[in-house]
Amino acid sequence: MDKQADYAYMQQALELVRRATIETSPNPKVGCVIVREGQVLGQGWTQPVGQAHAEVQALRDAATKGHDVRGATAYVTLEPCSHFGRTPPCANGLRDAGIARVVAAMQDANPQVAGRGLGILQEAGVEVECGAFPDLALQARELNIGFFQRMETGMPWVRMKVAGSLDGITALSNGQSQWITGPAARQDGHLWRARADAILTGIGTVLSDDPMLNVRGVDTPRQPQKIIVDSQLRISAQAKVLQGGALIVCAVADAGKQLELEHAGAEVICLSDENQQVDLPALMQELGRRQINELHVEAGATLNGALIRQNCINELLMYLAPKLLGSGAGLFNLPELNHVDEARALQFHEVSRVGDDLRILARFK
Ligand code: AOF
Ligand code: ZN
C-alpha cells in the first residue's frame, strides 16, 4: 500500500476533527475519510453526543454524492466503535457497507471498544491497520486529551490557568489584580474555558471577585458546568456564579444552607478528607464519573497549591505579562523546599506569544 497516500489521507481525517463541536463531549472527536483509487468518496466528523459518529457521517456523505463505497479504504482518527452505545457500532457499519480496508490512527481507550472494533473488521476479512504513524496518533490523542485521560484514569484532564507578571505575581498586596495581562490573553483564556466541560474555582475567589465563571466574548454552543470548592459552605445564595446552575463541593454538611443553595439552583455535594477540607482527589474521581473530560481550573493561590500538592493537575496554562511587580501574591501556595531536587518537575509543552504576553503550557511529569 502507498504509505505516503495513507499518511496524507489520515492528515485529512485529522483536519476534519477540527470541524466537530465541543458538544460531542463526553465523546471523542473523530474524523473519517473514505477513499477509492485516489478519489475521496465521502468524509465526516463526529456529531453532537447522541448523534452520528464520524464513520456514519462519511458513509452518508458518500451515499448523498451517489458513490458506492464497496472496496474503498476508510481512514479514521480513532478505531471504529464496536458497541451499542447511544449509536450502533461503526465497525459493523463499515463492514456492512463493503469497506475493504480500514486505517485507524489509534485504538480506542474506551474499555467497551479497546481493540474490539478492529477485531470485528478483521474477522469480516477487512484489512486493518492501526497506529502506523506515531506522530499522527499523537495528534489524534491530543485532540481528545480529556477523553483519553478519563478512559485511562477515571479522572478528567485538569488544566490550571494562571496569569501574572514575569516575576510570578498575580496580585498586589493591596488586592489589586486586574489587567496584569492584556486583552488578547484574556480573550485567549475564554477560548480555553470554552473547550472545557467544566470550570472549577474556590470559595476565596468567589468571595473576593464574585465572578460569573462563564465563557464571554467567544462563540460557544454551550457553557461549561461551574464547580466551586467551598469546604465550609460560605458561599452566598446570591453569588453570581450560581446563575445558570453550579456544583458546590463542601466538606462540612449544613442541611439548612444546602437547602438554601439548592433553591438558588445549585447542587451541593459533600466530600471531606481527614482535615475537614474537600477531598480533592475524590472530587476528581467524581468529576470523571460525571463524564467531565476536560476541567479548567481558575482559582487563587491556596486552592491552586492544594490541587498541585495533591497531584490533581495535569497541565498549567500560564499567561505572563512583560512586567515586574516586585512583590505581592504568588500564583501557587506551595510548601517551602529544603532542596532544589524536591521541586515539582514540569515540561514545557508549548510556548507562544498572545498579544504582548507570553503563554506557556507546561505539563506535570
Ligand atoms: C467512533 N466514531 O466518531 C466516535 C467514537 O454512545 P455512543 O454510541 O455515541 O458511543 C460513544 C463511544 O464511541 C465513545 O466513548 C468512544 O469510545 C467512541 N467514540 N467512535 O467509532 C466516532 N466519537
Ligand atoms: Zn462509532
From TrEMBL:
- Signal peptide residue numbers: none
The UniProt record lists the CMP/dCMP-type deaminase domain at 4-129
Q: In which pathway does it act?
A: Cofactor biosynthesis; riboflavin biosynthesis; 5-amino-6-(D-ribitylamino)uracil from GTP: step 2/4; Cofactor biosynthesis; riboflavin biosynthesis; 5-amino-6-(D-ribitylamino)uracil from GTP: step 3/4
Q: Which InterPro entries match?
A: APOBEC/CMP_deaminase_Zn-bd, CMP_dCMP_dom, Cytidine_deaminase-like, DHFR-like_dom_sf, Eubact_RibD, RibD_C, RibDG_C, Riboflavin_Biosynth_HTPR
Q: What is its EC number?
A: 3.5.4.26, 1.1.1.193
What cofactor does this chain's UniProt record say it requires?
Answer: Zn(2+)
GO MF annotations for this entry?
5-amino-6-(5-phosphoribosylamino)uracil reductase activity; diaminohydroxyphosphoribosylaminopyrimidine deaminase activity
Q: Tell me which UniProt keywords the record has, alphabetically.
A: Hydrolase, Metal-binding, Multifunctional enzyme, NADP, Oxidoreductase, Riboflavin biosynthesis, Zinc
Q: Which reaction does it catalyse?
A: 2,5-diamino-6-hydroxy-4-(5-phosphoribosylamino)-pyrimidine + H2O + H(+) = 5-amino-6-(5-phospho-D-ribosylamino)uracil + NH4(+); 5-amino-6-(5-phospho-D-ribitylamino)uracil + NADP(+) = 5-amino-6-(5-phospho-D-ribosylamino)uracil + NADPH + H(+)
Bound how, and how many: what does the cofactor note say? Binds 1 zinc ion.
Which Pfam families does the record cross-reference, listed alphabetically? dCMP_cyt_deam_1, RibD_C
Family note: In the C-terminal section; belongs to the HTP reductase family.
Please name the PANTHER family in this protein's record. Answer: 2,5-DIAMINO-6-RIBOSYLAMINO-4(3H)-PYRIMIDINONE 5'-PHOSPHATE REDUCTASE, DIHYDROFOLATE REDUCTASE FAMILY PROTEIN (AFU_ORTHOLOGUE AFUA_8G06820)
> What's this chain's function?
Converts 2,5-diamino-6-(ribosylamino)-4(3h)-pyrimidinone 5'-phosphate into 5-amino-6-(ribosylamino)-2,4(1h,3h)-pyrimidinedione 5'-phosphate.
NCBIfam families from the UniProt entry: eubact_ribD, ribD_Cterm
Name of the protein: Riboflavin biosynthesis protein RibD
